[in-house]
Amino acid sequence: MARTASNMIALGTQAPDFNLVDVITSNKYTLKDIKGVKGTLIMFISNHCPFVKHVNEEIVRLAGDYRVLGFGFAAIMSNDVENYPADHPDNMNEVARKHQYSFPYLYDESQEVARAYKASCTPDFYLFDDELKLIFRGQLDDSRPGNGIPVNGRHLRDAMDAVLANKKVPQNQKPSIGCNIKWKYAPES
User: What CATH number is associated with residue 121?
Assistant: First the structure.
């Protein structure tokens, strides 16, 4: 399996807006619809990626633990579904129901949202503060398929706990590693 690192965009970057369809409800959501009073987590994931499959249950736990504390959540799937049919919206819906996603699972058909966020892999995590400024980007934790390290969401949980404690989020952050986003055509630099 190919390993692609996330782009570590500048902390403080303003969250790009979006208007995407949730495959679970068929409702459209914008960034403001997702925004939490404490912060907002945008996750780029996909159905077929072994790295995402490896952390899926922790993503669900994380959302369950922190949504009630004032964080908003959304997952976005931006892969080319023509060449990767496992990521088709019908399959997205099936995966979301199987894992009981409590957050919208949004389909970025044009891939414009992934480009706006400079997303490069799945999973990729972007945590924004209450003003939608980036305070964390990168990996969930150190666990990867086959490395024997338990999935615990430590890096992202530490960042969210810092927000809740009114402390500064540590800026020494590690990029996520996962499957590359399956582009319809090469992204512009």
Answer: 3.40.30.10
The answer to whether residues 28 and 154 touch, using CB atoms and an 8 Å cutoff, is no
pLDDT tens digit sequence for 149-167: 999 999 999 999 999 999 9
- Euclidean distance between CA atoms 111 and 119, whole angstroms: 10
- pLDDT, one tens digit per residue, over 117-144 is 999 999 999 999 999 999 999 999 999 9
What's the total number of domains in the chain? 1
Domain that holds residue 122: 3-180
pLDDT digits (tens, 9 = 90+) for 61-119: 999 999 999 999 999 999 999 999 999 999 999 999 999 999 999 999 999 999 999 99
Structural domain contains residue 23: yes
Inside any domain, residue 186? no
Specify if 110 maps to a domain.
yes
Q: For residue 1, what pLDDT band results from cuts at 50, 70 and 90?
A: low
